[in-house]
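Q: Convert this sequence to structure tokens.
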Amino acid sequence: AKKCEHYNSPVPKGQGRGVAAGFWFNRGGETSSTLNLAPDGTVTIIVGTADVAGSRISLSMMAAEELGIPVGKVRVKMADTNSLGFNRVTAGSRTTFSVGMTIVDSARQVIGELRRRAAEIWGVAEDAVVFEDGMCKPAATHNVGDFDPLSISDIARKTTMSHGAIVGSTSMNVTGAGPGFGLHIVDLKVDEGTGRVDVMRYTVVEDAGKAIHPLQVEGQFQGGAVQGIGWALNEEYCYGEDGTMQNASFLDYRMPVASDVPMIDTEIVEVPNPKHPYGLRGVGEVPVVPTMAAIANAIGDAIGIRPRSLPMSPPKVLDLIEQAKAEGIYKG
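A:
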């Protein structure tokens, strides 16, 4: 984070800057998936989780990488819980991590079956067959003769009728999620007359382990930061004297919209998680964690007193401005 441009840039005149770090435990849990290889070489993956934030494409990419095929040949059927073992909820920064683990295992089961069938086609031992780049080939270490490589579609087409479908299926209690870490940098401006806080610049620096699909990861970083900005500045339940919630609709409950926030800059750090075959860490919850502290620090930098309660709404900020002036520490 200390190397990023935002951290090293001067604080604009009349603004405050805040920095805060945080982490999230991340989760694994019970997860199941099935991978079916069709005779035409296409792959259908069945998972029990919902597609949140584009996890479908990341799961497809891991399967395609294992099988050595274009990602366009992989189709993911989401949230089919009747066809699988038990799956934990789609939450807790677990989906791409946990389901990815089972998909990789299922794909490797399929590769093992492809090698067995290729060995039978060629009449050689299974250990004389290797799988590389979507092809079964004779192992260079075994003098078994000269055979043309067989693609996954070749093998499926030649053997499905006689040997049955090629399927990999995995159910496991996934462990080794590994915590995620992030640091946020925010510049903001405080209106002395109204107490309004405007976020002018925001940067998220976070360890994703390995960003399988960087656009998905950036979207998680940005969405989490915006959610945290809402919690920090606006979102609050308001109750009347009779205990009835007074702002129970989106007309009254103030959530941030696009015009309330700047473009959220992202810096993806990749320190691979050794417990995952592709090094993934969950990235869903971490971006929310430091946001409120970073904004509180920035407001404190701008006016001289750091807020201590949420949300940091205009009336509260005005009170802090008056307090800072009374104490002779106002920085506006």
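The mean pLDDT is 95.
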